[in-house]
Amino acid sequence: MPPSPGWGLLGLSLVLASVCAAFKSAAQGNSATDALNVLLIVVDDLRPTLGCYEDKLVRSPNIDQLASRSILFQNAFAQQAVCAPSRVSFLTGRRPDTTRLYDFNSYWRVHAGNFSTIPQYFKENGYVTMSVGKVFHPGISSNHSDDSPYSWSIPPYHPSSEKYENTKTCRGQDGELHANLVCPVDVADVPEGTLPDKQSTEQAICLLEKMKTSARPFFLAVGYHKPHIPFRYPKEFQKLYPLENITLAPDPQVPAGLPPVAYNPWMDVRQREDVQALNVSVPYGPIPADFQRKIRQSYFASVSYLDTQVGHLLSALDDLHLASSTIVAFTSDHGWSLGEHGEWAKYSNFDVTTRVPLMFYVPGRTALLPEAGEKLFPYIDPFDSISELMEPGRRAKEVVELVSLFPTLAGLAGLQVPPRCPVPSFHVELCREGQNLLKHFQLPDLEEDSDLRGNPRGTFLAPQRNREKYSQSPVRFEENICKIGSADM
Predict the structure, then answer these.
(1) Do the bridges between strand 358-361 and strand 71-77 make them parallel or antiparallel, or are there none, so unpaired?
(2) What is the DSSP string of 275-312?
(3) Could you give the CA distance from residue 263 to residue 283 in angstroms, rounded to a whole number?
(4) What is the DSSP string of 138-184?
(5) Residue of 52, 83, 170, 431 with catalytic role
(6) Helices 405-412 and 83-92: crossing angle, nearest 10°?
């Protein structure tokens, strides 16, 4: 059995060293010869319903702008359409059959093997690793600690307002508050006057500001909640999607002869008060057509709200002059059914629930480095009617999997790509089951070029890494590092 993490709730009381050791500047930012930073953006329940994936209705100008500077994978798939198994899978680079997690009820280090994670690997190679929002699934599957202290240099941040997500904060037509599925809100009226994804964006930008002058590279993972249910988002985003413009799914019927095991009755949707009021039959429904349009409207509105948060985050990356030294990877844990095959959730193996967006921006490789005063990611208002659809920088059409995130990010950052896993691999802490996607970046793939195995980093985009170059000083385990005053830095 692997060693117990030993931190968890006790971690807040452990003082290892001053936090300023992780952030104190040795020079103004990372120079061109330093290691590339990594910003990993993980969205919850986002199918490729985006302009850059040729969706004609959804307004996602900031994500589309990122795609225009990136390599976009058109056929990327999660290992499983459930939050915890998918996230544990791509963060460890192992399939659910190896992590032994198909639900929410076990921690892989205890029940499968002491497998390294992507942030853990970067941390062990000198990076400051930080988690904001929903990166690991909270609870048992990440040991109630987001896999701390293994994966993160500082305590993971969760927005304080997320505790209201499933409470009665939705104003109904009766004027009362309800726990609804469809939940557009006036942000000024909700508890704390904010929403979780807004708080996560603010925290992530704060951490970027702290890291701008750090001598060490960073790995920042930002996990956004929307468009996960309930569809709780600023009500003004409904205006982008008038109900009269919302169509139903093109294939709304449950397929004839469908085995029951292939269908999920979307019980999490049925538990919401507005859906309960419809008295929809179990297991197949259907939901009335007018309410189907409301669900689809609110999903699309949630995506546009999410897009604004991604836009603010990437604009800050620009403003802090980090866009020329930071890899940006964008993906989702899985998709979500919007009425296709009579489904209204995840949990199935239809491609609308397993297919995800996946794109990588690599400075100087997928887009030219910005010139002085130039912005790669200026914020775009989705309500701006003159905004134009931007084509992806480059499309890759082959089928890929999220287990490829681990080797691909490692290789792009100039780290040694973990070896392929043997079978079985429960005893191996560091290996990966996914293919390396570096060939799409015109970088040599270790699996295909044996001449590079002796010194693989030398011809990668990122410079050769020397893990001893960066201070390994531990950091103090603070609840919210961005509340530390400038005097402490």
Answers:
(1) antiparallel
(2) HHTTT--TTT-PPPHHHHHHHHHHHHHHHHHHHHHHHH
(3) 9
(4) SSGGGTTTTTTTTS-SSPPB--GGGGGTTSS-EE-TTSSEE--SEEE
(5) 83
(6) 40
Helix (H, G, I), strand (E, B) or coil at 368: coil
408 token code pair: 């691909």
Phi–psi pair at 43, nearest 5 degrees: -105, 150
Residues sharing a CB contact under 8 Å with residue 251, sequence separation 6 or more, in sequence order? 340, 341
Q: How far is CA 236 from CA 173, 226, 231, 232, 304, in A?
A: 17, 15, 13, 12, 11
pLDDT, tens digit, 9 for 90 and up, residues 230-281: 999 999 999 999 999 999 999 999 999 999 999 999 999 999 999 999 999 9
Query: Which pTM was predicted?
Result: 0.88
Q: Look at residue 484 in the predicted model and tell me its pLDDT.
A: 36
Percent of the chain with pLDDT over 90: 79
pLDDT band for 468, please (50, 70, 90 cuts): low
Strand ranges inside 298-357, DSSP E: 326-332, 355-356
Which one of 20, 52, 111, 137 is the catalytic residue?
137
Question: Is 137 in the active site?
Answer: yes
Specify the residue for token string 């499968």: 112
Residues 193-231: pLDDT tens digits? 999 999 999 999 999 999 999 999 999 999 999 999 999
The pLDDT, as a whole number, for residue 469 is: 55
Q: Is 83 a catalytic residue?
A: yes
Pairing of strands 71-77, 394-401: parallel
Element (H, E) at 232: strand 231-234
User: What pLDDT sits at residue 372?
Assistant: 84
Does 80 have pLDDT greater than 50? yes
